[in-house]
């Protein structure tokens, strides 16, 4: 069996994203789901609990800015802190517009 499917329901219009791992078209980027590089789904060992914990711990994080490839090198820098704060502010505004 292949990995489970996940779909992000975006209730807003446009190409902006609340999170680098969650796309407006519903795609959820997570290696366990086969939508990103890294450890993949193993039908003999992987579980739905593992997927849910991975979503919570790797995607739904306090500073999603650093999930974007190339931004992890800014972790701990003043530039990274400012960019992350702006990203979060933009995501809040986008979420409020969609509410």
TrEMBL record:
Domain called UBC core: residue spans:
1-99
* Keywords, in A-Z order: Transferase, Ubl conjugation pathway
Q: Which InterPro entries match?
A: UBC (IPR000608), UBQ-conjugating_enzyme/RWD (IPR016135)
Q: Which PROSITE patterns match?
A: UBC_2
Q: Could you tell me which SUPFAM superfamilies the record lists for this protein? A: UBC-like
Q: Specify whether Transferase is a keyword of the entry.
A: yes
The superkingdom of the source organism is: Eukaryota
Which GO molecular-function terms appear in the entry? ubiquitin conjugating enzyme activity
Where, if anywhere, are coiled coils annotated? none
Q: What is this protein called?
A: UBC core domain-containing protein
* Organism from which the protein derives: Spumella elongata
Upper classification of the source organism reads: Eukaryota, Sar, Stramenopiles, Ochrophyta, Chrysophyceae
């Amino acid at each position: 069996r292949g990995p489970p499917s996940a779909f992000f329901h975006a209730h807003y219009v446009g190409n902006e994203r609340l999170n680098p791992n969650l796309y407006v078209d519903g795609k959820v980027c997570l290696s366990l789901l086969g939508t990103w590089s890294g450890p993949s789904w193993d039908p003999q060992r992987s579980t739905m609990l593992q997927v849910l914990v991975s979503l919570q711990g790797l995607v739904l994080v306090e500073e999603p800015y650093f999930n974007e490839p190339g931004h992890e090198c800014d972790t701990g820098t003043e530039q990274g802190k400012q960019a992350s704060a702006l990203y979060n502010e933009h995501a809040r505004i986008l979420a409020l517009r969609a509410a």
